[in-house]
Amino acid sequence: MEPWSVCVVTPVSLVGACLLEHTRIRGNLFDTIKFETLENIAVISLNRPEQVNAFNVQMRDDLWEALEAITIDTNIRTVIFRGEGDRGFCSGADLTEFGTTPSRVIAREARYARDIWALIRALPIPVIAALHGYVIGSGIEMALCCDIRFSTTDAIFALPEVPLGMIPFAGGSQTVPRTIGRPHALDLLLTGRRISAEQALGFGLIHQTIPQEQLMEKVFEQANILASLSPTAVASLKKAVNRGIELPLEHALELERRLCININD
After folding, report:
1. Most buried in the list 8, 157, 194, 245, measured by CB within 10 Å?
2. 83 φ, ψ (degrees, to nearest 5)
């Protein structure tokens, strides 16, 4: 039984407060994801288990609506990303869509028409990835948009784009080296080799490994702690870290000072 299945769960969708209320009443309206709220925690479950939750255009659109819903619901304090089914969190891009277009430029444009990756990174609340099984390509890139990444001990990670004749479409060429450093990033990106959860933990790709049967319990435990924090402090901290890391140190320290003053005011 899922940890939230014994609680009152409210499905949510988008475009404005009216649609939020409509979907709470009518139920989950998405084709490729499940979107549920448990008090002030939102749970987004990738829901194409037969395809190991491969990312496709419909999933992009569903995620876009779910993420926009989160941005207008001030009651949500933490977001969890997870994958349905036993086989994995996400097996990467659905190559029956993105790998068979007449032009790879068209495929890239289709994926960026709605930039969900930037939308995840821009959320002012904590975002947790609960990873299991196969975490491949776009699955890793989505996880790296999250703030904290928990993984089952048996998860498998890989970035296979370059051996397939392309490069990452969803920011992996930038987020992977920024997370684990250039040497490890080039190793994984160039070879496409698979690594274990233990290796991913050693590289810094994930934060903690957990036995499969305990994963969601631990994730919800962390989510509840994060949801109890001051929303203003969390949003300011995320802005200080995410913007500051791209600035010279003296400018980043000035940003931190301004944010501290705003909180104290």
Report:
1. 157
2. -125, 140
The residues annotated with a catalytic role in the active site are: 141, 161
Domain membership of residue 91 (yes or no) is yes
Q: Does 166 share its domain with 251?
A: no
Burial of 218 by CB count in 10 Å (0-12 exposed, 13-18 middle, 19+ buried)? middle
Confidence of residue 263 (pLDDT cuts 50, 70, 90): confident
Kindly state whether residues 179 and 249 are assigned to the same domain: no
This prediction has a pTM of 0.85
Q: What is the pLDDT of residues 198-256, one digit of tens each?
A: 999 999 999 999 999 999 999 999 999 999 999 999 999 999 999 998 899 999 999 99
Count Cβ atoms below 10 Å from residue 18 Cβ, excluding itself.
Answer: 8
Q: Which two tokens stand for residue 259?
A: 């944010």
Query: Is the domain of 195 the same as that of 238?
Result: no
Q: Is residue 4, in this structure, part of any structural domain at all?
A: no
